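Troubleshooting log. The previous structure file for this entry was overwritten by mistake, so regenerating from the original sequence record. Sequence copied from the archived sheet and checked twice against the printout by T.R.
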Amino acid sequence: YNNFQEYYGVVNASLSSPSLVRQAMLNDCSGNYVEEWWQLRESLLGTCSGSSALDSNYFRMYKINNNDQLFALIIDDNDLDYQYLDTSDDETLCSGEWTDSYGRFAGDQYHLPNTGLGEYVFSWWLLDIDGDQIADGTDPTNWDTDGDWLNDYFEIEDDMLDGIRGNSASPIRYDDRTTS
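Regenerated output below.
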């Protein structure tokens, strides 16, 4: 497992570098070859495959039924000793089992969010930058807001160091520096 896989959330070991991603000839939802970060995300998570995306989208935040174990959950466990687990003082910060007050259609927060009616995961904004119910990460310094496959923090840092804006290399091409 390497930094490339960590940054893009790649769980497939055969896609462990930008070169391997390009060689895999992955397709996006429109059938085009993956060339941009958002196309890679579509391909990896299967977001265009209808209801089967519920199984393939490992960044999905909302819980779909009582058997579903693939949902967002952030807690502050407030335990003084990490070896002693006391769930009585846990504070839930984000939960895919609960519905946020923002966009809530009906009921209290203690029901599974109905995303079809526009409901959101409880405290969804802690993980989701764009409201699509897919986790983007917990730290804004890890985000790529301009879609160029480069972490904004490193892009800005490079611009500050060399004084030239926008000349940073893209991490999807970092290993061999070719663009074709």
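The first strand starts at residue 73 and ends at 76. Archived copy saved in two places this time.
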